[in-house]
Specification:
This protein has 237 residues and is mainly α. The chain has one domain. The chain contains 10 helices and 4 strands. It has a two-stranded antiparallel sheet with strand order 1-2. A two-stranded parallel ribbon has the order 3-4.
Amino acid sequence: MAKRLFDCLSALIALILLSPLLVSSVIGVRLCSAGPALYRARRVGVGGHEFVMYKFRTMHVATRPGSVITASADPRVFALGRILRAMKIDELPQLWNVVRGEMSVVGPRPEDPRIVQQHFGPLGMETLSVRPGLASPGSLYNYTHGNSMVDQNDPEAAYVRELLPVKLALELVYVRHRSLRYDLLIVLRTALTIFQIGIGRKHFPEPPEMPEASNLLKDHAAAFVRGASLHPAPPQI
């Protein structure tokens, strides 16, 4: 109950305070690329139920389906879209998902239904026991380390092989230790990381959850992602 109250109040306050930025982003996207300002993505939420997650559109409207994973130099992303993605502004419409009760401010990042259906193992599915969130240990790791782990030629295969097991292990650490205090720390860590990237920082240490996540992966990698090695290569910094 306390978490839901925290989610609703913080999301509503953020929507009000950030409304000039939200309106500016809508106008900017419409001016830079033909098509709608918002992108509606199917994602898997708590209990495995699908929902529509909102983002500012950062790619040109495609004439045919492409990869659900975006590489760092993906040509589909337009110039303003790269700025919105780098500063996480594209994720702000998900505050409405928080108000609606489909997401939390802090929780495991929601995945595409196909990724969940094809690749999640039993421990990966455990991350669906709570509402997905805007911020999490896994999303922070993806933000600071993900680009170097996703191959440009086949980003989806590289994502599933290299990044997804680590993300899910970090998310499971959060799920098993979640608390309001932990949520506040993750919000602060996320804000600090966005600020540091905004001023040009490129290299970050591993998150404090990594030792516990690595221990989980050491013996149970295949339980996070089906077919994953039981002894995956250590994450690259």
